[in-house]
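Hi R.,

Here's the input for the phenylalanine complex you asked about:
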Amino acid sequence: MNLAEIEAVKARAVASAMDAANAQDIEAVRIEYLGRKGLLPQIMKGLKDVAPEDRAAVGQGANALKNALNAALEKRLSELKANATHEGAPSAFDATLPGRWRACGTMHPISLVIEEAVRIFSRIGFTVAEGPDVETGYRNFEALNTPDYHPSLDNQDTFWLESGELLRTQTSPVQIRVMEKQPPPVRIVTPGRCYRRDTTDATHSANFHQIEGLYVDTDVSLADLKGTLAYFAQQMMGPDVNVRFRPHFFPFTEPSVECDFTCHVCLGKGCRVCKQSGWIEIAGAGMVDPRVFERVGYDAEAVTGYAFGMGIERIAMIKYGVPDIRMLYDNDVRFLTQFR
Ligand code: PHE
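And here is the predicted structure with phenylalanine in place:
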């Protein structure tokens, strides 16, 4: 090849470099001219056949071709990269690519149950009240008519703090906080965290959640309590779910009951979920003990009230069929993303 031919090749090579539409094109041009079997190595090989007096000039021409083409390829590549960041650049947008899935957070089952319970109670006039996790012994026990020899005050059951305060063992102290502050009538639900020195197993956790209800007014009766819990049971677990009361004891209610819901899986026939009994224990409840009213300065002769408390985890486990309470705290996304 003589110098003129090399110049022509150079012009062609640089032109096709500048025409490249994408990175593959650029690579193709590079291979065509500079690759091992490309045009430039052939020119170099042919140098020995060039007349000795022209050889230096032809060699320089070949070098110039190589440098010019490399520069052109580099320039074009950076042009393409710059274009790719501009919207509408043909090489940057591929409408045939599948869309990217945006990972979207889900509500935690405990939050779901709290939110739904609050919604259900708000429809019949309850508002939400909250209290702190760190409580006084007075509000957690004494004001709730719990004598200081009661086993729940024991170090083995309650997390006492060095300050003499404690981590509340139930949401009931929020009843006291609300009644200390406002006169009757009161109609509140209080969702929140509770703490007990329980050893963790499939159904126990040292940290759990309750939702408490309190209704104080003139002429509130046990029948009102039962109606309210039946309404809640049906809204939360299904229209065919019913409730039953069993006598129980709590220091701050009299009479006290434990409230069972019809097993929503077998609707009372008996199955594995309800251990063949047809019922599932859900809530503690009762009529507010007059001594509690006296503590907060209410006229115990004039008002009556009911209170109930239930475990959020328990409802979540039953409602969603979660076999082990620890699954609610493991934060395994494979578990959590099932609650949409
Ligand atoms: N606080 C009780 C408990 O944790 C539940 C309860 C609340 C019982 C309100 C009666 C009235 O077991």
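One thing worth noting: The chain has two domains: 3-86, 109-339.

Cheers,
M.
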